[in-house]
């Protein structure tokens, strides 16, 4: 027995979440609760700080041993394992029943900017393989139009040695700023994606036609994928500041 065990005082550890964290959790829990398909076998789980709560909720399901989860990056691979879920890959399970993922920005037509966490290719691969794709986010991600709330630019995955050419192409196309994403310190150099590629962030301001812009960027030699997700999401859940969850 330690003195703590004998102490009459009981310490209760309550994890206080910030407004944003609580909003993410509320959105993720509700999205899973309302959309998890009966008898689902393959679940895609995206990347970022909101899907942490998707993995947490999936890990609370009584039938969690009956389905396999497909991550879109290293972060979720770890979380799938730590939540006691079955881990699979998109190569093994290309038919995904449902995918949940976060977004950097979402408009009312469910066009998205994604890739703030550098996982956009895997995210698009998994979302594009899913019968249903559901977005989970907090109130800050709702936007009247893409490029308004998220001002860091459209994330674009490119083959490394094409960065100068694609940067020039994007500038000609009207991007006011194109940045080769860096790894966080002067020494780190460019961010390397899970596919060994580089990322550009191209600022096009307010994006009037996300589908057209995606098609134009995708057509450039050197571009692997863009962070513009159009005609993919079926529903979006947003945790609000008052604890409610709204949907688009
Ligand atoms: C990663 C992504 C994320 O889904 C996006 O950045 C949102 O992340 P968060 O849930 O942390 O706000 O696209 O590439």
TrEMBL record:
Q: Annotated Gene Ontology MF terms?
A: ribose-5-phosphate isomerase activity
Superkingdom is Eukaryota
Q: Which organism is it from?
A: Australozyma saopauloensis
Keyword hit for Membrane: no
Pfam families the record matches:
Rib_5-P_isom_A
Whether Isomerase counts among this entry's keywords is: yes
Keywords tagged on the record: Isomerase
Reactions catalysed, as given in the entry: aldehydo-D-ribose 5-phosphate = D-ribulose 5-phosphate
User: What is the name of this protein?
Assistant: Ribose-5-phosphate isomerase
> Among the record's GO biological process terms, what is one?
D-ribose metabolic process
**Which family, according to the similarity comment?**
Belongs to the ribose 5-phosphate isomerase family.
Q: In which pathway does it act?
A: Carbohydrate degradation; pentose phosphate pathway; D-ribose 5-phosphate from D-ribulose 5-phosphate (non-oxidative stage): step 1/1
């Amino acid at each position: 027995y330690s003195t703590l065990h004998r102490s009459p005082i009981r310490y209760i550890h309550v994890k206080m979440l910030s407004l944003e964290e609580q909003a993410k959790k509320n959105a993720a829990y509700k999205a899973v609760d309302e959309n998890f398909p009966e008898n689902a076998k393959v679940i895609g789980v995206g990347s970022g700080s909101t899907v942490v709560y998707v993995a947490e909720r999936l890990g609370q399901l009584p039938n969690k041993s009956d389905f396999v989860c497909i991550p879109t990056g290293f972060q979720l691979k770890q979380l799938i394992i730590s939540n006691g879920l079955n881990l699979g890959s998109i190569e093994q399970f290309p038919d995904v029943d449902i995918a949940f993922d976060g977004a950097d920005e979402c408009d009312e037509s469910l066009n998205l900017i994604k890739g703030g966490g550098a996982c956009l290719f895997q995210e698009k691969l998994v979302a594009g393989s899913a019968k249903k794709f559901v977005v989970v986010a907090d109130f800050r991600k709702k936007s009247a139009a893409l490029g308004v709330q998220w001002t860091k630019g459209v994330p674009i995955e490119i083959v490394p040695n094409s960065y100068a050419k694609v940067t020039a192409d994007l500038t000609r196309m009207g991007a006011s700023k194109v940045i080769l994403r860096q790894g966080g310190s002067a020494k780190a150099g460019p961010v390397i994606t899970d596919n060994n590629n580089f990322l550009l962030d191209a600022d096009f301001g307010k994006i009037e036609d996300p589908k057209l812009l995606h098609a134009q960027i995708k057509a450039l030699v050197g571009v692997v994928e863009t962070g513009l997700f159009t005609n993919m999401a079926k529903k979006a859940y947003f945790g609000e500041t008052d604890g409610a969850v709204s949907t688009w």
